[in-house]
Amino acid sequence: MPPPCVARTPPPMSRKYVVGICAMEKKTKSKPMQEILRRLNKKKHFDLVVFTDDMILRQPVDAWPVCDALLSFYSTGFPLEKAESYVHLRRPVLVNDLSMQHILFDRRKVYEVLIRNGVNVPRHAIVNRDGPTPDILEESENHVIVNGVQINKPFVEKPANAEDHNIYIYYPTSAGGGSKRLFRKVGDRSSEFYPDVNQVRREGSYIYEEFLNTQGTDVKVYTVGPNYGHAEARKSPVLDGRVMRDSVGKEVRYPVILNSVEKDIARKVCLAFQQTVCGFDLLRVRGTSYVCDVNGWSFVKNSKKYYDDCGLVLHNYLLNALRYRSTRARPATSPRYPMSPSFSPPDPSLILQPENNEPAARDTPTNPPNLSSSHSSDPFDNSPANFGSPSFTHMSRTSSNASVEDLHWHEKKEELRAVIAIVVCTLEQRHGDRTPKQKLKTRVWASAFVDFYEKRRTKDKFDEVKVKAVKDLQELLDIVRNLIKEYAPNVGSKGAVWEKDGGDSFEKLLQIKRVLERWKFAGINRKVQFKPRREYMPPSSSSGANSELLLIMKWGGDLTETGKRQGEQLGNRFRNELYPVEEGGLLRLHSTFRHDLKIFTSDEGRVQMTAAAFAKGFLELEGDLTPILVSLVTTLDKDANKMLDHSGQADANEEIEKTKAKMRKLMHKEYSSADEFISAAAPLSTKSIVEALRKIQFPLESLRKLHDLIKLVKTEIKELGAETEKNAILLSDPTINEVYMGETLSLVSERWEKLYRDFYSAQKQEYDLSKIPDIYDCIKYDMLHNFHGALVLKHGRLLFELAECFVTCYVPQEYGLLGMDTAEKQSIGIKVSQALCAKIRSDIAMAMTITHEETAAVVNSAIGYSGKSFLPLCTDDPEEMDCLEHNGYRLDPSFAKELRIKSPGTQVRTRLYFTSESHMHTLLNVLRYQCPTWNERVAAAMRAPCSPQRSAIVPDEEEVTNRLLNQMGIGKIPGDGPNKALYELDPSKLNTPEALAALDNVTELDYLAHITIRVFEQPWLLEDDEHRFRVEIAFSPGVRGDPETNEIQRSASTSSMSSAGFGGPSPPSTPTTLSSSLPIAIPASAFLEKKDSIEIDHLYQPDNKIYLTNNMPGAMFDDMLATCIASAANTANIPDSV
């Protein structure tokens, strides 16, 4: 054995280099390692020596085999220091540096190295408890503060010890609270949700970092040197914790394409940690990529192509490095690590060229340009395709230059390009099927309340204080309990302090107690506000007697279990009926990263929860909604919120108030006959409105009747409450007084008492029509959930039917009086939905954009790929970073054959928008009536029917759309917009007469009403053919059903729908009529076997949905939207007179 200080003699070319593999047998005998070693051995340049566990653990290092190069890495039980001693003794060429592997044990040090090398990491703070002076962590309900750095929930809590894989995620109360625990995979589970665990761990050192929403995707990058990386994506364990496995039990991952920034990150990670073979976790969020973990030695499992690539890269690197060292005869006293910046370049003549008699390392030889210059000295220069980014053309989409003979279709079949859905989950303040929202106001002056306010108000300001935190609500409840004990003996006496506020203050105090005690402090829909009176003075002042506050308590609005099931079932039906069923349907499309999904909601908690329920059914997820909400649902910020919430009405508020004033005038007028009323309120004879008005007959008389029915119902409920309260006392069982979701009959009674009081103003002698939706909501909710079966309201049915009539003729009219003319509908419609229309137009334009980088050849995935992609695989444009519409990961098509994916080029874009009823009404009005400018164009086209139309979008109109998108943080219309084909401007393709008639029959928009817009392409047609893209628009008014349907009918309804993808019947305590009669806006035949032409207009149309159109040219729809968006600022004023 030569002494270590003597330089090695260059081996004769006939002698093979000795490459040692020093790792635990569990790793060296694994399939990935065996595949790589087999490929290294196949090249005939190396003798491979695999160290056994017995040798590594028991024999001294001077007895270990002498090696020219060493593959060595840590895993559980591996003596890293001992291996380092061997390296110091023998000085072999190292594939992965051993000393740097110590850093990988500590996540804090890993982040230090990443930051030092210019790699983005999530914003974080570190709690060190392993030093002499442990850091102090301040914990609040929705954030932690460490060394002055505040990290808000949701945040991730990672142990500093990288060997500890128990990572926790904590969620904010606004999303429902709780925490998710991630752990090493156990069977088919990788995480569990704990709804009641909200406190962080207090022992050990941790990193607290902001949770980054990656749309439910985790990506691991596997490098083999700085110029090669393979990226694989999987469903994030944060979503539902269910591990998807393949036929051999391996977790399912799919190769995806990295952008140039991420390739540079991979290079930096590889060099910074001096680990040639290295795995790390990558997060892409709004166009910016972050590294959140570095694992060290990692191989891809189950990929022949990766094994071929890795074997070739390692072979070339080892041979080049060993020949270079042999030629230079470097002294063995100076170990050279391959990743070291001081590494000198090898002679270019020594770069290995493949030998003719050696088998190809890949199925298809590729020699793409390297990331570095062509004269790079890197020993990895002969790597195969860098970072899994081969050029290719989508097999399912070509430019017009491609000949039909080039296509591999056996039959022509149109392809789905985009699905856009707008779903209503707030109905005039109602959110899916939810508990009624309620509010209580009372004046308080007790010192305990005042002190409570004083501790929380801003210093030197007498501002409003909002109380939502669990600790604060509990303190408030204790104050209320103590005050009730103190004042209860004197209630009713003349001088009682609680009689000061008109005699009901003590009763309100009892109600506050009931609300605070009824449900645990974990909901997201309960808060208390304290507002100082105008004359308020703090107790410390000389005029402390004026320390009086207004206490406002708001509660309710919780999405019910029925509401959650409705959302989940709708998602389920979307998945099964709106997407192609070939190759495993939507789930296969989504899991293989050929489905670009984004879900947008406003910042309203209940809307977000409905969207999460939908996503659960849509992607067939399991478990609680909170992790799904935080991981998949994008909440719009202030600038973009107007797209979906009520702030979008700001520009139209004046006109909306005018229409409400007209309705008030019409409803409070005396008429000589019902026909006179109908003629005044609906001169255009809209069917649904006329039918509702005919039932109302005389509006003022019917409003009095409605008020009287409320009185009768509240009296019934009060009597029922008194009876059950007696039984509760007799049986010592307070739950007897409870109805659905923990509400008590006394609280239900108080709800109706308030409605009765607020609906009519004796002073004004006027009915408040704005309360009509609340009345309808409450009676519908109570009949559905509280008063059915044995507990029935005698007058409930009459109240429901009359309230329904008023809702039918009142609510839609707020957005323009349909009975008068269409001018108001157009004006209000385009103003309220302008931002949403701009976003929809952007989605449609992206789906229809064809770039001219496409090549004529479209090749079958079994053969390979050539040419360029028709869409950008990623964005490197700095202007598009931090954009809501950043590009997600896409399948690497070079692995399609191995993964048995027949159509790797298929890309479907899905955008789901969960919004309010106001946006649904106004968007429907835009789709139905468009705008005056567009109507003039249609009229002109009708006068010259033989003249085809070309897009009339002028730069100013395009600028309006792009300006709106930029204001909302969304990228502009892609490129020059979609291809502008000639098209015939046929109004019947915009709205069919049958569709308009069907819309007239819609009485109301109910829970989960929705519009679906789908874009289809016939890719064999020329680019300028108007039929290449068609747009299909369908509408569903939402769930249907009678809340008083008996149990037999409920069961029959549930059974009849189960064949359409619904689950089994709901628990008997919850009526299921509405949830089981859920229409969906879908086509009868979702995907058509296409010939050159087909009469789409004559397809069978099911009666539970309305098709506005199913054959509109895409260019025509784009023109119409652009024109309406631009016309919003130029809408003519509407006259005030009725």
- CATH top level class name of the domain at 407-428 and 560-630 and 833-850 and 907-1040 and 1081-1128: Alpha Beta
What portion of the residues fall into strands of 2 or more residues? 15-25%
Mean pLDDT: 78
Stated plainly, the CATH topology of the domain at 407-428 and 560-630 and 833-850 and 907-1040 and 1081-1128 is called Rossmann fold
Largest sheet: 7 strands, mixed
Domain VIP1 N-terminal: 18-106
GO cellular component, one term: cytosol
Biased composition (Polar residues): 385-396
Subcellular location: Cytoplasm, Cytosol
Fold and architecture overview:
- By secondary structure, the protein is of the alpha+beta class.
- Among the domains are: 123-211, ATP-grasp fold, B domain (D-amino Acid Aminotransferase, Chain A, domain 1, 2-Layer Sandwich), CATH 3.30.470.20; 407-428 and 560-630 and 833-850 and 907-1040 and 1081-1128, Rossmann fold (3-Layer(aba) Sandwich); 441-494 and 502-555, no CATH class; 687-817; 1045-1077, no CATH class.
- Helices cover 34% and strands 16% of the residues.
- The chain has 32 helices and 31 strands.
- Strands 25-24-28-19-29-30-31 form a 7-stranded mixed beta sheet, with helices on both faces. Strands 5-13-9-10-11-12 form a 6-stranded antiparallel beta sheet, with no helix packed on it.
- It is globular, with a radius of gyration of 34 Å.
